[in-house]
């Protein structure tokens, strides 16, 4: 049963405690009294609302009499409309008799307050269904904001309806009130343990989720447009860079700042698997949306773009360079924790940078992809790998980021590319393992998990296609470098 204490705890009612012993008698109904004499006609358990007209010119003695009448009839409470300046004699009488004295501001809409109170204390099935239908109708507006929907639901139900934002926890148990966007819980709608409110909770949460989705779409539309340009700048041919950079500047991207990048590799895709491609698209879209939400409150400029079934994250700043990579790492770790179960447990993450300017952006992205390949080779799923920043990997990353260098080295591997992407990839993998092993079939076989005879057979088939002499140091170096850069890119 509802008590006067429950009315005070319901913050949306704006009712304050004046006197009496908590929690008070169970409330069975609500009535308004325009005159103090009307208190004599009330029933046990009622909350009697004394309007401003009833108390405005009343003397302390008249208020004492009204309080005594309410106590004699075992009313649950007297609710004063106004400042709650009740005579001390009334307060002492309430304390002795079990009556509760409450107050609400003079500006309160009394008609609405009485409706809310009545809904709160009435528990018949017909009323529950009526309130449930009212709540469903209140949130059936696809143009309303989340805040508007919550306010309408609160008015319809007559109880508090609030959205509690979700924290930074990697996982959260789903409830009827969970607000879910792209399978990510971004908040929880909270209502009291009221039958109608509990029944309406899933519908309210779903409506709020749709509203939040619309808000995020509007909020990040411009950011996603910039992200597409950032991805184009990162991968474009050199001849296309000037126009792309100019476009990026026009839409507000800080091309000349410092940049770091993360590459989230979700594994290989089979172009012939329509269901697999659709599933990957949904996964990447969901992670992208979660990332936009995650990075929206992080210092710096952040852009996320889907690229060939994987996800590129670029962080940029004109200052606070020391925090950029740390924020990027924390953000992608959060995303990976969110999606790893749905990605089949395989998400390989690489982080590159920070570097300055357009060339720095391209280098950071290349480093991130190289680092993700290292994560894949070491089977470090879900744990970001930082590009080491020293030695040959740095040189390879610079070569991979250079369009001119890539073009020259791609010419070396052109005969393999003519065989098709799958056979070319296998050929590069075999040649790289063979050259890394200083042309030892046995060592290369251990890397490739093949029999040494299989490696020898492949090498004898591949080398003639390339028209190279592996006994010649220059030819051997050119092929080794081409394979290394191809794998790095």
The assigned CATH architecture of the largest domain is: 2-Layer Sandwich
Distance between the termini: 68 Å
What is the tally of beta strands? 13
Helix percent reads 40-55%
Low-confidence stretches: none
- CATH homolog superfamily of the largest domain: Reverse transcriptase/Diguanylate cyclase domain
Q: What is the CATH T-level topology of the largest domain?
A: Alpha-Beta Plaits
- The first-level CATH class of the largest domain is given as Alpha Beta
Number of helices: 19
Walk across the major sheet and give the strand order: 1-5-4-3-2
Organism: Nocardioides ginsengisoli
Protein name: PucR family transcriptional regulator
Domain CdaR GGDEF-like: 243-373
Domain PucR C-terminal helix-turn-helix: 428-485
Structural description of this entry:
- The chain has 489 residues and is an alpha/beta fold.
- The protein folds into four domains: 4-121, HprK N-terminal domain-like (Udp-n-acetylmuramoylalanyl-d-glutamate--2,6- Diaminopimelate Ligase, Chain: A, domain 1); 125-215, no CATH class; 254-397, Reverse transcriptase/Diguanylate cyclase domain (Alpha-Beta Plaits, 2-Layer Sandwich); 405-488.
- The protein is built from 19 helices and 13 strands.
- The chain has helices at residues 4-9, 52-55, 60-72, 88-97, 110-121, 125-138, 146-157, 195-235, 241-250, 274-295, 321-339, 357-377, 391-401, 403-412, 414-417, 421-436, 441-448, 452-466, 473-488; strands at 16-19, 29-33, 46-50, 77-81, 100-104, 162-165, 178-181, 184-190, 258-265, 301-307, 310-317, 348-356, 385-386.
- The strands form three sheets. A five-stranded mixed beta sheet has the order 1-5-4-3-2. Strands 10-11-9-12-13 form a five-stranded mixed beta sheet.
- Helix 12 (357-377) links the parallel strand 12 (348-356) and strand 13.
- The longest helix has 41 residues, at 195-235.
- The chain is elongated.
- The mean pLDDT is 83.
- It comes from Nocardioides ginsengisoli.
- Residues 428-485 form the PucR C-terminal helix-turn-helix domain.
- InterPro entries: CdaR-like_regulators (IPR051448), CdaR_GGDEF (IPR041522), PucR_C-HTH_dom (IPR025736), PucR_C-HTH_sf (IPR042070).
- Belongs to the CdaR family.
- Pfam families: GGDEF_2, HTH_30.
């Amino acid at each position: 049963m509802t008590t006067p204490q429950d009315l005070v705890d319901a913050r949306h009612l704006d009712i304050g405690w004046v006197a009496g012993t908590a929690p008070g008698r169970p409330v069975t109904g609500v009535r308004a009294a325009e005159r103090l004499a009307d208190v004599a006609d009330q029933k046990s358990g009622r909350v009697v609302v004394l309007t401003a007209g009833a108390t405005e010119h009343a003397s302390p003695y008249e208020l004492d009499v009204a309080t005594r009448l309410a106590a004699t009839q075992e009313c649950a409470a007297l609710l004063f409309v106004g400042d709650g300046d009740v005579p001390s004699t009334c307060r002492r009488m309430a304390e002795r008799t079990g009556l509760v004295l409450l107050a609400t501001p003079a500006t309160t809409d009394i008609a609405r307050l009485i409706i809310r109170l009545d809904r709160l204390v009435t528990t018949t099935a017909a009323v529950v269904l009526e309130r449930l239908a009212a709540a469903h109708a209140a949130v059936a507006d696809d143009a309303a904001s989340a805040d508007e929907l919550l306010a309408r639901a609160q008015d319809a139900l007559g109880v508090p309806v609030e959205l509690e934002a979700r924290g930074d926890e990697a996982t959260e148990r789903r409830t009827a009130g969970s607000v879910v966007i792209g399978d990510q819980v971004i908040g929880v709608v909270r209502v009291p343990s009221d039958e109608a409110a509990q029944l309406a909770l899933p519908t309210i949460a779903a409506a709020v989720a749709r509203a939040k989705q619309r808000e995020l779409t509007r909020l990040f539309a411009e950011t996603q447009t910039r992200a597409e340009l950032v991805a184009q700048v990162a991968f474009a041919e050199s001849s296309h860079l000037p126009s792309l950079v100019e476009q990026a500047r026009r839409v507000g991207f800080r091309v000349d700042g410092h940049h770091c990048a993360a590459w989230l590799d979700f594994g290989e895709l089979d172009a012939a698997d329509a269901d697999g491609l659709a599933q990957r698209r949904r996964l990447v879209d969901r992670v992208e949306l979660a990332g936009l939400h995650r990075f929206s409150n992080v210092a710096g400029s952040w852009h996320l773009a889907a690229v060939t079934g994987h996800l590129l994250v670029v962080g940029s700043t004109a200052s606070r360079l020391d925090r950029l990579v740390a924020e990027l790492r924390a953000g992608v770790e959060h995303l990976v924790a969110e999606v790893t179960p749905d990605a089949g447990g395989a998400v390989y993450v690489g982080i590159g940078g920070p570097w300055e300017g357009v060339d720095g952006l391209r280098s950071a992205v290349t480093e991130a992809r190289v680092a993700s390949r290292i994560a894949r080779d070491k089977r470090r799923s879900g744990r970001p790998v930082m590009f080491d920043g020293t030695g040959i990997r740095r040189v390879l990353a610079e070569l991979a980021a250079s369009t001119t260098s890539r073009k020259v080295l791609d010419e070396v591997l052109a005969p393999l590319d003519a065989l098709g992407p799958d056979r070319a990839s296998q050929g590069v993998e075999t040649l790289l393992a063979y050259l890394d092993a200083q042309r030892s079939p046995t060592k290369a076989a251990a890397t490739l998990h093949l029999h040494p005879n299989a490696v020898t057979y492949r090498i004898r088939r591949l080398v003639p296609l390339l028209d190279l002499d592996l006994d010649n140091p220059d030819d051997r170096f050119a092929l080794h470098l081409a394979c290394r850069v191809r794998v790095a890119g």
